[in-house]
Amino acid sequence: MATKTLVMTEGSLGKKILLFSLPLMLSNLLQIFFTLADVAVVGRFAGALALGAVGSTTTLVMLFTGFLIGVSTGVNVLVARFCGAMDHRNASETVHTSAILCLCVGLVVMGLGQMLIRPLLTLLQTKADLMEGAVLYLRIYFAGLPALAIFNFGNAVLAAVGNTKKPLLFLSLSGAVNVILNLIFVIGLRMSVAGVALASIISQYLSAFLIIASLLREKGMHGLHLSALRVHGDKAVKILSLGIPAGCQNAIFHVANLFIQAAVNSFDTIMVAGNAAAANADGLVYDIMAAFYTACSSFMSQNYGAGKKERILKSYFISLAYSFGVGALLGLLLLTFGRPFLSLFSTDAAVIEAGMMRLTVMGLSYGVSAFMDASIAASRGIGKSLWPTVIVIMGSCVFRVIWVYTVFAHFRTIQSLYLLYVFSWSITAFFEILYFSHSYRKKMRQFYTVDSATEPTQGDNI
């Protein structure tokens, strides 16, 4: 049965981007809620050591899941491009190739994660009393990565055609299951760290099953049919040329954050726990803002494919305005209600005060990241992925490592560590905007050629 989708190539862009983004925003929040529920339940019912163990894995979880989310970017952009051009054959081939690619990537990432757990935790200078709990949590959690890859594939396909409500429904159901299982495993069965990890992966497999079942019922060009599952080489190359740089960007971004986590771990256990509690705000804010970045790529790509030149740049500016406004507003709310927020994860007053040190700096900085991320999304929306990735690696990854070993090494205060975020975002945003401006002007000069208006060439993709 075909489902109603949002028409991105006609009507008010401001209204439609908002309608597209709201369900996606809630979906992103529910996805991060899996991790938040783990931290909240384990922190309140299993103690500070269990909280520290789960919290110390956050950067590694984001590293591997961020790569999978990045890979799905290639799926979203290419499906949106072909659907905007009403190219049924290429859209269908992209969907079926993507399903196989995403599953394979999920399995490979799971295997690598299992092999690298202890070395990476050691690199992070994880406290000895937290190490075994952190290893156990990741061993179980990483078993759910293939399911996460499949859900991201389905989510990307549905977002490409404007259907962001179904993923929200599926994540609502699996999120409810996650919370119930957390309470049963941790409070009822006293499974502590293992319980919250097990609850998470069961929920992930449920959401993956639901979204695949939905795509199998679709009759449109984005529907999934088992008999048509095969890898089309040209589509695989295009998906990977967009998705792998995006995935590597996310992964390398979090590799840089490993150095930040190591710096945090140089402080006492209270500061580590406070940082872990406050860092949950990052996921909430980033994922709400990320809905507008997905909208930016999807709307720009569909309108590019449909030949609606006047709507391409306008989609970028509207998405940027929304994401900046939301980031600034949520930052101010966290400054005002930071202590009640932190009390969800710990009742220890010292941990809450340590967490407020992070929220104070970050709350004033979130909005700045919109200029960087919206510009990256815009570049990908017109088929450019490699150079935005290079820029963000240099500006927000290499720069952060240098900061840790220079500015932070000099001052040795937690505030001097947290300030690196806003400085790295500002520098990266400047160069991402320059690159997008150059690429957009070049694309517009080519706009009316057949290749650029319908199916991008390999050069366009990178």
Commentary on this structure:
- With 462 residues, the chain is mainly α.
- It has one domain (13-461).
- Helices cover 82% and strands 0% of the residues.
- It contains 18 helices and no strands.
- The chain has helices spanning 13-45, 48-55, 58-84, 88-123, 128-141, 145-160, 165-188, 192-217, 233-264, 269-306, 309-342, 349-363, 369-381, 386-411, 414-418, 420-445, 450-453, 458-461.
- Helix 2 (48-55) packs across helix 5 (128-141).
Helix-strand blueprint:
Layout lengths: L12 H33 L2 H8 L2 H27 L3 H36 L4 H14 L3 H16 L4 H24 L3 H26 L15 H32 L4 H38 L2 H34 L6 H15 L5 H13 L4 H26 L2 H5 L1 H26 L4 H4 L4 H4 L1
How is this structure best summarized?
With 462 residues, the protein is an all-alpha fold. The chain is built from 18 helices and no strands.
Estimated helix fraction: over 70%
Strand content: under 5%
What is the strand tally?
A: 0
Distance between the termini: 36 Å
How much is the average pLDDT? 85
Rough shape? globular
SS summary, helix count: 18
Q: Give the helices and strands as they follow along the chain.
A: HHHHHHHHHHHHHHHHHH
Radius of gyration: 21 Å
Derived from helix and strand composition plus strand pairing, the structural class reads mainly alpha
Main sheet characteristics:
none
**Segments where pLDDT lies below 50 for 5+ residues?**
450-462
As for the number of domains, it is 1
Main attributes of the structure:
globular; mainly alpha; single chain; 462 residues
